[in-house]
UniProtKB/TrEMBL annotation:
SUPFAM superfamilies: Bet v1-like. GO terms for molecular function: cholesterol binding; cholesterol transfer activity. The lineage of its organism: Eukaryota, Metazoa, Chordata, Craniata, Vertebrata. Residues 10-207 form the START domain. This is STAR4 protein. Gene3D superfamilies: 3.30.530.20. GO terms for biological process: cholesterol import; cholesterol transport involved in cholesterol storage; intracellular cholesterol transport. One of its GO terms (cellular component) is cytosol. InterPro entries: StarD4, START-like_dom_sf, START_lipid-bd_dom. Pfam families: START (PF01852). It comes from the Eukaryota.
Length: 207
């Protein structure tokens, strides 16, 4: 188990990585799934043997409220059907923490429940916000869970210029689920999970 990292350099590196992902040209992405709420693309990850996913959709709400529902905190557990528990293990400052969370089994439990320990950082980006994270090798793995690993992930949320009450939400996710899993099952689960994320988020913001 590694000691906790110094937050400032890790936060800075994480932000720079996400901004670089955000500048990847459209031609490098391939559509993985399209719904009325979001489009999901993918490309081979530079970090591991799986894919980097990009999801994007317009959400009918202001940036701050959307990000409050996504980043670590009480809102996330209320609406995210995939997340089954979340604990803040360390808080460095208001916008920076280490959290441990668990996810439900997927695809009729072909993918068993997973546990993650992530460093999370929220910062300003253009006229909106970026909330991002990366997994850490920290804390004991609890029984009955496989420890997954999130390579640099994040959500950019910026107000639409011609409609400030709406926001463009763009996510970059590359999750290494680990364990003995067929890659095709992982790819199906990731695309569906990201599309459902937008649907669930929109419902939560309306309540």
């Amino acid at each position: 188990m590694d000691p906790l990292p110094t937050p400032a350099p890790l936060a800075s590196k994480l932000r720079n990585t996400l901004v670089r992902y955000h500048s990847i040209g459209d031609g490098e992405w391939r559509v993985a799934k399209k719904t009325k709420d979001a489009t999901v693309w993918r490309k081979p990850s530079e970090e591991f043997s799986g894919y980097l996913y990009k999801a994007q959709g317009v959400v009918d709400d202001v940036t701050n409220r959307i990000v409050d529902h996504i980043r670590p905190g009480p809102y996330r557990l209320e609406w995210d059907s995939l997340m089954t528990s979340m604990d803040i293990m360390e808080t460095f400052e208001e916008n920076c923490c280490v959290m441990r969370y668990t996810t439900a089994g997927q695809l009729w439990n072909i993918i068993a429940p997973r546990e993650f320990v992530d460093f999370s950082y929220t910062t300003s980006y253009e006229d909106g916000l970026l909330t991002c994270g990366i997994s850490l090798d920290y804390g004991e793995v609890r029984p009955n869970f496989v420890r997954g690993f999130n390579h640099p992930c994040g959500w950019f949320c910026v107000p639409l210029k011609d409609s400030p009450g709406h926001s463009l939400l763009t996510g970059y996710i590359q999750t290494e689920l680990r364990g003995m899993l067929p890659q095709s099952a992982i790819d199906t689960a990731m695309s569906s999970t990201l599309a459902n994320f937008y649907c669930d988020l929109k419902k939560a913001l309306k309540t």
